[in-house]
# Entry
Amino acid sequence: MGYRSSRKIWLLLLLFQFWLAPSCGQAAPDKDGPPLRVPILLYHRFGPAVADSMTVTTPVFESHLAYLRNHGYQAIPLRQLVDYYLQKGPPPPPRSVAIAIDDGHKTVYSDALPLVRKYRLPVTLFIYPSAISKASYALTWEQLRELRKTGWFDVQSHTFWHPNFKQERKRLNPAAYEEFVNMQLRKSKARLEQELGVRVDMLAWAFGIYDDFLTAKAAAAGYVAAFTLERRAAQSSDQAMKLPRYLMTNADSGQALARILADRFRPAAGGDTKK
# Structure
């Protein structure tokens, strides 16, 4: 082989390596502006007065929705954000926010529904089915069906009965614990899909508790995304099975809400917040 042929082959190999470089496990850079940061605002229950630390009064909840509308924020379905992480969709628009409500308290129907209709904002409900139509504080299956029919509510899983996985791991032997985890993840998904005819593949970790074992079990059970209680905005570098959410309290109003939304432009701060 002559010099010219050898040089030609060497140049071709060099070009081939250069062409491969961007696809070798590197994260794609954000094309426009700062890295993605989307606050996910998490609520639990509502009412005229603060009954406990998880209650956001209905007037304060409305003030949050009005603030989003009046300050140019765009509430997006949580599914849209998840599709971005799964590389099934583009990055959400600038000033995006997502809204979630955990547990399935009856005030979702009595207090939140009228406001969601008024402000026309999508909400994702994370439900533990064991309480539905059974516990006095909980929604009924018929109410959940009504919420679904409005087009503003998606329903996803919050395990079957909201266990504390840390405590269960201490209480059970490894085989029993694995069986328990599988039941909590699979039974919740199956019951919600059966009752509501929805696709359930997103999960909110009960008490914000998760680890590598749990995320692997969730993926094996058919979940593609899961959500924690880390008090910061979701960003491009996050993993789909542990996306952070702000646990909202009644004190998070006015300037406190403004600071939460402003955090979308700040670097992530570590640490979990437990329910």
Residues 6-33, 265-275 have pLDDT under 50 and may be disordered. The chain has one domain: 36-265. Residues 36-265 form a domain with the TIM Barrel fold (CATH 3.20.20.370).
